[in-house]
Amino acid sequence: MFVVENFIVALARIIDIGLSIYLWVIIARALISWVNPDPYNPVVTFLYRVTEPVMAPIRRLIPIRGMGIDISPIIVIMIIYFLQTFLVKTMIQMTGYIR
Q1: pLDDT of residue 3
Q2: Other Cβ atoms within 10 Å of 9 Cβ, number
Q3: Three-class secondary structure of residue 61 per DSSP
Q4: CA distance 75 to 59
Q5: Domain with 79 in it
Q6: What DSSP designation does 63 have?
Q7: 16 and 88 in contact (C-beta within 8 Å)?
Q8: Are 97 and 9 in contact (CB under 8 A)?
Q9: Based on the number of CB atoms within 10 Å of its own CB, is 47 exposed (0-12), middle (13-18) or buried (19 or more)?
Q10: Do 55 and 48 touch, CB atoms closer than 8 A?
């Protein structure tokens, strides 16, 4: 049974690392949006392609028409923190693994 427990702990850690990397990508996208970036720059194109599938549905749910500020990165960051706190820790605690 320890093989399954080790697999779940390893999977939880990989999910945690992936969420941390995506958090920094979201932060980079938000910082890039404060300036007028070249839309044909490969870095800008990468950031938009990676983040837009997650941020677009949030923008549809919470329209930004009257606010003038895009709060979708903040909401995505809160979702990432929730997943790291709830999902990853629950997976690890489910196995009985003690850090």
Answers
A1: 87
A2: 18
A3: helix
A4: 10
A5: 2-95
A6: -
A7: yes
A8: yes
A9: buried
A10: no
Residue 27 to residue 31: CA distance in whole angstroms: 6
Query: Two tokens at 19?
Result: 């969420």
For tokens 């690890």, name the residue.
92
| CA–CA gap between residue 91 and residue 97 (Å, rounded) | 9
**24-52 residue pLDDT tens:** 999 999 999 888 888 899 999 999 999 99
Overall domain count for the chain: 1
Instruction: Classify residue 79 by burial, with Cβ atoms within 10 Å: 0-12, 13-18, 19+.
Output: middle
End-to-end C-alpha distance for the chain, whole angstroms: 19
**Is residue 28 packed enough to be buried (19+ CB in 10 Å), middle (13-18) or exposed (0-12)?**
middle
Model's pTM, two decimal places?
0.86
Q: What would the pLDDT profile of 47-78 be if each residue is shown by its tens digit?
A: 999 999 999 999 888 876 667 778 899 999 99
